[in-house]
Write the structure tokens for this entry.
Amino acid sequence: MANLKAAKKMVRGTKIRAKRNQIWRNRVKDVVKEVKVLSDTGKKVSPEKLSKLYKTVDKATKKNVLHPNKAARIKSRIQKKVNSNIK
């Protein structure tokens, strides 16, 4: 446990940031799952859903919750899955 006052403040701040980051990670996972389920069932994924996914992933990346390469990988995989079901 931290002894110094500043160290205790840092611990509190770390908990707050961790919770905020977890919220964004969950948002990304939920949106990705939503699009994957639509794609796997053979339904057409609307452009609004894809736009929402891209927007959420980009915001998480901007807030340093996701690494930029991971964000690009998520978007690429989803787009590839959606395109494979268009045929």
User: Anything to note?
Assistant: The two ends are 58 Å apart (CA to CA). Residues 77 and 83 are 10 Å apart (CA to CA). The longest helix spans residues 5-40. DSSP finds three helices and no strands in the chain.
